[in-house]
Amino acid sequence: MSIDTKEIAPAPTGDLGGLAQGRSGLRTLKNSIAGVVIWGAFLIALIPLGWILWTVLSRGLSPMLDATWWQKDQSGVGAPGFDHNVRGARHAIVGTLMIALGTSVIAIPIAVMTAIYLVEYGRGGAARAISFMVDILSGVPSIVAGLFIYAIWVTFFGWQLNGFGSSLALVLLMVPVVCRSTEEMLKLVPNELREASYALGVPKWKTIVKVVLPTSFSGIVTGSLLGFARVAGETAPLLILAQYSQFLNQNLFSGNIAALPTLINTNLPNMAGDPVSADRVWGAACTLILLVLVINLIGRLIGHFTKVKG
Amino acid sequence: MSSSTGASLADELPDPDGRPPLRGDGAGTGRRGDRLFAGAATGSGLIVIAMVVLVGLFLLFQAIPAIGEDKVNFLTSRQWQVSARKFGIVQMLWTTVATSVVALVIAVPFAVAIALFLTQYAPKWLSGAAASLIDLLAAVPSIVYGLWGYFIVAPKFEHVQSWISDVFGWIPLFDRVGGVGGGTTIFLAGIVLSIMVLPIVTALTREVFNQAPMAHREAALALGATKWEMIRTAVLPFGKTGIISATMLGLGRALGETVAVLYILSSLPEGSKWTWSLFNGGDTFASKIANSASEFTPGLGTGAYVAAGLVLFVLTFLVNALARVVIERKKAFTE
Amino acid sequence: MGKRIDVKDLNVFYSDFKAVEGVTMTVEPRSVTAFIGPSGCGKSTFLRTLNRMHEVTPGGRVEGKVMLDDEDLYAASVDPVAVRRTVGMVFQRPNPFPTMSIRDNVIAGLRLNGVKNKKVLDQKVEESLVGANLWNEVKDRLSKPGAGLSGGQQQRLCIARAIAVEPQVLLMDEPCSALDPISTLAIEDLVTQLKEQFTIVIVTHNMQQAARVSDRTAFFNLEATGKPGNLIEMDDTQQIFNNPSKKATEDYISGRFG
């Protein structure tokens, strides 16, 4: 709750003239400077946001508006006899969504169940330990998550890398986001509803599944969408785990798979003097930022319009 | 119940009188379901613990052989030449800490000011939207920050940096460094990181400012304090521990940030001279690992990077755990 | 239907704190029993032990016996979930499920316990709402959310929800304290009507209400804050209000404290 202190602040207006003059000019000056600095800080913080959006949109929107961007992958690029100017990103868009979906399928159940444990079951030391670990997990750098999966997947088991490995690394990053927001939502469900259900002779687990979760459903959806947006935009683990492919690969469990961040990373070295590569990079950046922002926005709107009613 | 409508639960419930028995194995009342569900919830919590523990263990066990083969001191050497079996982390540690500290030195004052703006200054209609705009900064993928920082900001920053060197070059931190062109320096990486961590520091700081007791604020105003004096006496002291823990969490983020730093910061050529200057290039733990990812081969080479990752993991673990302790302490005081 | 409750030497604890001490009483079937007493005297806590709802709070436990006819509610083999199907409860603040319609609220208990037959459910909706004196007011909007009703209607919806599972006993924890006088009257009428079928126990702060609706009244008190609550006396309501046998009861009823 934000409290508007302006309404209770004494106003140094004419009818309070005597009082207002009681303040020294220096104090009033300090007060004004503080106001300007604080407003200024907010406005300055908006500059990078606007600048970034302008940069990406102005450079990346035009390749995105071409139908081939969505329809074609880059098969054949680089081979003799093919069109080297294909700007298609279908393979990377599909890959990004598939990896993030794979992550969500694993991460959301774990996160929601962990939140349920923390709110509905957890007591004492075990709950504190798990809650602490959720905090630690939310601070694990994404590159470390990637390195960890590499250490298991390749070094330990000696398996071939595929898209699912990337999904697993991203699970570590998604779980804490979804868990924390689900936890907040479950805490908002009034205890009276749980009691009403128990008093009807409904067992605890059915109370949670049929009464508590539906009441906080939209909040959990919001949290999941924010988590999805976070991992869809994540790059670092993919640099270690996702071997780029210029072909559309619809199998998460086999072979190299492209993603928007790795498309950017692959084309980056060729950008100087190659407008096609530059288009691919900025187009992919633009697609990625719009994807993330749109999912984020949908999540926030759902959260905004369907607040839990006690 | 012999009801007027003739509807009875008799056909639906297992017992012939339509009454569930009080006794039994509990199958009908869901005791078994309760056990399974509670087990699943507890199991998920344990998975979370296992994730963190496994990250630590796997990194540790794969780092040990590499550190054992190390020809220089892992913790005190500046040399990192994987092919020559020389793994020293000093240069990376310095770059990681320097970029992160620069980021926080810039971000924290801004975050505090913005949190004050959102809680004390912004009109009600603006406050929610303004907070969402700040949150949007967190939604921008880090690779986009990297592209923007490298292609757009760095060329402009080069002039600023050159000017700072001209005026403040006598301070070692702002010494001019040859060979690192285009503004792609620790200082710029720090600036971009500061924008990236701003939302998280702001959000946490805003939360504690919102909890500052109304009574204290009104008391200050009733004594004739100006708004700014009220903030200094009733809001800022209350939020101090919150600001500290928010700073720690922001630091945790900055230490581990990868792609933005990877794109912005120029790598240093091998054997370059040591300098304290922020206008130097370099590699953070994260950017070094990412940069070398394509050359990973199972074996000691990868082990060296795993060891670097382990140091980064331990650093962020400590910073985050400390932040958590500060928050818990604070809670114990206010409750 | 409507069963007798026999309580013998019941102590109620929350972790180490003894909230209620040494209660022995009998609640007659198909009657209304009122619990009165000052705040914190343990009457609500005691009420919640009659369907083991106090166990929902961590650390809640009892010593002693609660018999429902000839079954001990606290015997090791008894499932608390089954107890709550037999002994229903209505709470202080109306708490319809916000995600469910009026219809779904009424049959929530049945549905969540696995009843699927639509015909039975439909009949049960009407029967329970008629039973709760709410049918005429909501029959045209059964699919609207329950949260859209007035406070008094919501409380009657909660009563309909509680009686839909056909309990033997209905516990009411200050069911009118959040309602206006008109809605309170409607609930009191309903209570008088429901005692034809159910054993009813009602906790109330309102002594006129206890006098109006109950057949028997139990007065609870506590010696001091931090001490456990006790049952001071229990008798026919007429007797308690006109000629109580204990001084503390008389003081409370005549408004000298509490």
TrEMBL record, chain A:
User: What's an example Gene Ontology biological process for this entry?
Assistant: phosphate ion transmembrane transport
Where does it sit, as one GO cellular component term?
Answer: plasma membrane
Segments spanning the bilayer are 33-54, 92-118, 130-153, 159-179, 211-229, 281-302
**A single GO molecular function, which one?**
phosphate transmembrane transporter activity
Could you tell me the keywords of this UniProt record? Cell membrane, Membrane, Phosphate transport, Transmembrane, Transmembrane helix, Transport
Give the similarity note.
Answer: Belongs to the binding-protein-dependent transport system permease family. CysTW subfamily.
Q: What does the protein in this record do?
A: Part of the binding-protein-dependent transport system for phosphate; probably responsible for the translocation of the substrate across the membrane.
Protein name in the entry = Phosphate transport system permease protein PstA
TrEMBL record, chain B:
Transmembrane region positions? 36-61, 92-118, 130-153, 186-204, 242-265, 304-327
The places in or outside the cell where this protein is found are: Cell membrane
Q: Which domain of life is it from?
A: Bacteria
Q: Which SUPFAM superfamilies has this protein been placed in?
A: MetI-like
> Per UniProt, which keywords does this protein have?
Cell membrane, Membrane, Phosphate transport, Transmembrane, Transmembrane helix, Transport
Tell me where in this chain the ABC transmembrane type-1 domain is found.
93-323
Q: Which PROSITE patterns match?
A: ABC_TM1
Where is the region Disordered? 1-30
How does this protein lie in the membrane?
Multi-pass membrane protein
Q: Which GO terms describe its molecular function?
A: phosphate transmembrane transporter activity
Task: Give the UniProt family note.
Answer: Belongs to the binding-protein-dependent transport system permease family. CysTW subfamily.
Q: What is this protein called?
A: Phosphate transport system permease protein
Q: Which organism is it from?
A: Flexivirga endophytica
Automatic annotation (TrEMBL), chain C:
UniProt keyword Oxidoreductase, yes or no: no
Q: Which GO terms describe its molecular function?
A: ATP binding; ATP hydrolysis activity; phosphate transmembrane transporter activity
Respond yes or no to whether keyword Nucleotide-binding is given for this record. yes
Keywords of the record, alphabetical order, are: ATP-binding, Nucleotide-binding, Translocase, Transport
| Cellular component GO terms, alphabetical | membrane
Q: Which domain of life is it from?
A: Bacteria
Residues covered by the ABC transporter domain: 5-247
Q: Which GO terms describe its biological process?
A: phosphate ion transmembrane transport
InterPro entries reported in the protein's UniProt record: AAA+_ATPase (IPR003593), ABC_transporter-like_ATP-bd (IPR003439), ABC_transporter-like_CS (IPR017871), P-loop_NTPase (IPR027417), PstB-like (IPR005670)
SUPFAM superfamilies of this UniProt entry? P-loop containing nucleoside triphosphate hydrolases (SSF52540)
What the entry lists under NCBIfam families is as follows: 3a0107s01c2 (TIGR00972)
Sorted alphabetically, which PANTHER family does this protein's record hold? ABC TRANSPORTER I FAMILY MEMBER 17
Entry protein name: Phosphate import ATP-binding protein PstB
